[in-house]
Amino acid sequence: MTRIAVDAMGGDHAPFEIVAGAVWAAAEYGVGLELVGKQDQIEQCLETIQSEGFLSDCGKAGRKRRVRVDVKSLDIKITHASEIIEMGEAPGQAIRKKKNSSIVLTVNSVATGSSEALVAAGSTGAAMASSLFGLGRIQGIDRPAIAVTLPTMKKPIVVIDGGANSNCTPQMLKQFAIMGRTFSEKVLGIENPRVGVLNIGEEAGKGNELAQATYNLLEEEKEKFNFMGNVEGRELFLNHCDVVVCDGFVGNVVLKVTEGTSSLLFKMIKEQFKSDFIGMLIGMLAKPFMKRIYERINYEEFGGCLLLGVKGITVISHGRSKAYAIKNAVRVAKEAVVTGVNSKIAESLS
Amino acid sequence: MTRIAVDAMGGDHAPFEIVAGAVWAAAEYGVGLELVGKQDQIEQCLETIQSEGFLSDCGKAGRKRRVRVDVKSLDIKITHASEIIEMGEAPGQAIRKKKNSSIVLTVNSVATGSSEALVAAGSTGAAMASSLFGLGRIQGIDRPAIAVTLPTMKKPIVVIDGGANSNCTPQMLKQFAIMGRTFSEKVLGIENPRVGVLNIGEEAGKGNELAQATYNLLEEEKEKFNFMGNVEGRELFLNHCDVVVCDGFVGNVVLKVTEGTSSLLFKMIKEQFKSDFIGMLIGMLAKPFMKRIYERINYEEFGGCLLLGVKGITVISHGRSKAYAIKNAVRVAKEAVVTGVNSKIAESLS
């Protein structure tokens, strides 16, 4: 049975929602768990879940329902971690100083083979740094990167890097292209994925120094990368390519602006329907349709993003994740174990 | 009477839609025009508009209506320009080489006082470069920047730079903060605007080198800038601040991802309502409500963005602008003349 290690102390809603999501996934996807964190708190969560269950909106942005899980029937291992790395801490320093922190020990459980993959919803920097040092890099990759999958009208598009590296070199972006292609092909099932450079104009020579130099690097091996050239922010959702590379600063901005814009639009729609009585009636009728779209773009459905380039599987979840998002993150981790995306990346580099 | 110079040859739909939008604005807002471009083509457009009018969806994403303008009653000057700068050309070189291009002569008309402001929908780089060289910089400003206004639930937020400078220094971003504050206060009427740095985390020390250094610079003069610290992409639409600074690469990505996301959502909503017969009925009922939201976020309503930091008024419009967007761009230009935003920036720097 695949065992997934979960940092029970990471994220805005830790530990309860994290533990709840993990056991929910264990029951639904048939995986074993290694819950890493303060033992007494984790045991307390498990007891509450066993006796009362927990409430979740199940990613549907509506009324919550009570989820029941028979915790006793699951294969759960608890690994005690006495420390926690907080959001504000400098990742590099923190993982060296707090060797008994939940994230360091979660990574350790994968490094030692006790678990096969890990899920972390705490500090992205700490998850990345501890994965880098604990699991090691795949040969040929200088820096791991986060692969973010965004919905479009047709096939999903991979944005890489989604926030692991704020300062990047063109060579790093070329490596992101290699990892992104493998991810798109092996995990999303897209044949011969097309790669683009995120830029602010279509023509060669547009954009900042990084985008220009990356364009030139990929253009040199156009065939290998199935390189489509520059892609603008507007075109991300138009399926002009399957993988788009950028530095982690820009990638993270893209991800969060996408979230912010959709959230704004849904609020505007809600407000607009509330403007008069007829509107409220039509709004009620339209609700199930709007909900279906909400579900399609809701980050909770995606659960988490894979950190590519390390020798092991790290799934990074949103800091705001509740049980439903964590459940899906564990699913992503399990799928990554099955597809063996990291070993496929190593193969494509050798 | 205020006279606005319009580059009739710039933009995907030049010259007809540009000329149509300009004369529409002249009739509606009572401004004089200086249309710059190929004289015969401009005259041809004016004749067609006089005799047949033109079709426009008036920013409503629905059926087009015929707009009639009595061109003969307007104060229109035509300035012949024999050359055009194309989208792919390197801006700096192009404006030096093509001294008789429509954009160079449009800027020239403002520089010589023939017109009071200009509107350009062609190459942003060329519009910026020619404004920089033709109008000159405001003292204390190293590089002009584009101020983009994004809608939120409450007050609009200014993102600066929206695409004029791909490579920036912290000092430049500090100047953008000064210009953005003046714009927010004088043009948008926001009292003591709050400034933030676009970043990928809230804590100090987050993000790339540029964001970190800019944070430190603004933090040093916290009171003066009413500095709120870092702002994430998701929070742009939550009114956590009124002005957010970033380099033009990131700012342009933000702008286009916002456009792309809203366009994707509207498509998804349309598709969802079409999924069955009941949906089609409800969709028809919901249409007027959706339209009102579309209008609220439609870039055509904003018309164009001001290039701040030059000694003159340059409004940069979307390359895809049709008549309705150009009409609004001329309105923005007229308002900028009235508020005198550039002289206010000069004042705030002296």
Structure report:
- The structure is a homodimer of 350-residue chains.
- Chain A is globular and about 60 Å long.
- The model of chain A has no long low-confidence stretch (mean pLDDT 92).
- In chain A, strands 5-2-1-6-13-12-7-8-11-9-10 form an eleven-stranded mixed β-sheet, sandwiched between helices.
- With 350 residues, the first copy, chain A, is α/β, with parallel strands linked by helices.
- The first copy, chain A, is 48% helix and 16% strand.
- In chain A, helix 3 crosses helix 5 (124-135).
- Chain A has helices spanning 16-29, 39-52, 91-97, 102-111, 124-135, 170-186, 209-220, 222-225, 248-273, 277-297, 299-302, 323-339, 341-349; strands at residues 3-7, 32-37, 54-56, 65-67, 76-80, 117-120, 145-150, 157-160, 195-198, 227-231, 243-245, 305-308, 313-316.
- The longest helix of chain A has 26 residues, at 248-273.
- In chain A, 58% of the residues are buried.
- At the A-B interface, helix 9 and helix 10 of A face helix 9 and helix 10 of B.
Keywords, please?
eleven-stranded mixed β-sheet, 350 residues, homodimer, alpha/beta
Question: Brief description of this entry?
Answer:
Two copies of one chain form a homodimer. The first copy, chain A, is an alpha/beta fold. Chain A has 13 helices and 13 strands.
